[in-house]
Write a structure and sequence with these properties.
CATH class of the largest domain: Alpha Beta
Low-confidence stretches: none
Structural class: alpha/beta
CATH superfamily of the largest domain: NAD(P)-binding Rossmann-like Domain
Shape: elongated
Strand order of the largest sheet: 3-2-1-4-5-6-7-8
Radius of gyration: 21 Å
Bound molecules: NADP nicotinamide-adenine-dinucleotide phosphate
CATH topology of the largest domain: Rossmann fold
Number of domains: 2
Mean pLDDT: 95
Amino acid sequence: MSKVVFIGAGRMAQAIIAGLTKQSDWLIVVSNNGNVNRLEEMEQKYGVQTTDSWKEEIFDADVIVLAIPPEAHDSVLKELALFIDKQFVITVAAGIGPSDLEKSLPEQTPVAWLMPNTAASKGKSITLCAKGTQMEQVHEDMLEKILSSIGTAEIVSEEQVHTLTPITGSAPAFVYQMANNLVQSAKEAGISEQQARKLVADMIAGAASMLQTEEDPQDLINQVATPGGVTAEGLEVLEQHDFNSMMKQVIKACHDRSNN
Ligand SMILES: NC(=O)c1ccc[n+]([C@@H]2O[C@H](COP(=O)([O-])OP(=O)(O)OC[C@H]3O[C@@H](n4cnc5c(N)ncnc54)[C@H](OP(=O)(O)O)[C@@H]3O)[C@@H](O)[C@H]2O)c1
């Protein structure tokens, strides 16, 4: 059994814990910034152990997962550096790469940077992963187990995680924004909220399975949009509002925020 200590108990920690609890061989200990109610809820919901003092849990931990905001890393890493002795440290924070962790932690600390998305809670995250320089086979094995518990993964460079974070980490929110609009329009047909949500969710799942054939998205658009037809009219409006340029701005805004 491997012991994993989560520092941070928010949305992303819970999404990963939901995956890990499906594997039987983890002892999971969770701590946070003092929100006791949240820890009690997590004990009930996931059957994890919780603590108000993560420092006491580090000495026999195998993995430490930092699921805290990027801006909390400086102070937590400073404290962690005092307690760590070659335990594997993983962060899921936007903008905090393995080189940042290695700079802040003792030499030879194995580290990795994961960029999951909230579909981790359903075992469906596509997770980006950049490894540090000190990982050995035992860390590779633990990493593989963590990644497989929350979905699929791509191993990429630190620079690529920075660049791709908006695409895999943030973009689910953009899809949900579109879904929200479609649900509202569907309800105007007189169906229930529940029916509208199911209809939109199934539509997106179907579109996703078409994309998973790796066919060119433009070809998929062409298959839907008969020239002069109903869909073509809708696409024309997207074009009039410069949808492509808007998406570029959206991705740029994410990059700008994560670089600040
Ligand atoms: N949400 C996503 O879709 C997503 C996707 C990819 C990556 N991430 C990354 O995941 C990280 C966490 O995001 P989130 O969405 O899970 O945030 P969240 O829901 O706001 O949770 C943040 C957690 O961090 C804890 N925390 C804050 N400062 C701390 C400190 N100094 N010491 C110990 N615990 C501290 C909070 O404690 P309390 O419980 O006491 O408030 C809370 O449990 C971020 O770095 C984010 O970039 C998020």
